[in-house]
Amino acid sequence: MSPPASRASSRTALPDSAAAETPAPARGRSRAAQQRAHDTRAALLTTARRLFGTDGFHATGTTDIVAEAKVTRGALYHHFRNKEELFEIVHRAVTLEISEEAQAATAAMTGHTLQRAMATLRVYLDLLATRRDIQRILLIDGPVVLGWERWRALRSEFAYAGWVQTLSLLAEQGRIVAVPIEPMAQIILAAVDEAALAVAHADDPAKTLEDMARALTLLIGGLVDTRHAPGPA
């Protein structure tokens, strides 16, 4: 499966859910004022998403964000406590973005649960490995800015939780050998992140991507209980 990065590379706006997290408006505010507040927050998030992805968290100042978003510094601190909170919301939105894109790319696929999971994993790896902005926000700056525990917690909301669900379903179907589900999900997620970083820094990214995809396939394929035929599920 070829990476859908070209389709996503022009995307700078965050998902509607991120921009829509505007605090409830005070009673009596006009609809126009509410819309301005929503638009201001959306502009800040979209601008921060682009600058964090291009220049990185530490090289991006709040002055850069407000200047490019064409809002005041006061507006930024009205919507966000600080730059770290803004980054966390962007990080969450990007995680959701690539998770949804990977799921959408394989939604129409037929086959049993493990086949669909592996196809989704490949798209997810392609996105992580080929999109520099995603790498910077999720894998490079994320652990440093948010701290290891908070970063892991955010990763758990999407990718980790998805693998726990998938492995649990496969175990219920008897398609994989008995394994501790949550530790295995952590191992798979860590392997995917490391594979993505290896591709990003490789002299031959295309070959490294294929090698890493094959290694992940062998890792996860090793869980299959060969006593059960891979019928549809």
TrEMBL record:
Biased composition (Low complexity): 1-11, 23-35
SUPFAM superfamilies, per the entry: Homeodomain-like
UniProt-listed Gene3D superfamilies: Tetracycline Repressor, domain 2
GO function term, MF aspect, one: transcription cis-regulatory region binding
Positions of the DNA-binding region: 61-80
Domain of life, per lineage: Bacteria
InterPro entries tied to this protein: Homeodomain-like_sf, HTH-type_TetR-like_transc_reg, HTH_TetR, Rv0078-like_C
Keyword Transcription regulation: yes
One Pfam family cited in the UniProt record for this chain: TetR_C_41
Keywords: DNA-binding, Transcription, Transcription regulation
Domain HTH tetR-type: 38-98
Stretches the record annotates as Disordered: 1-38
PANTHER family: HTH-TYPE TRANSCRIPTIONAL REGULATOR BETI, HTH-TYPE TRANSCRIPTIONAL REGULATOR RUTR
Protein name stated in the entry: TetR family transcriptional regulator
Organism: Alterirhizorhabdus solaris
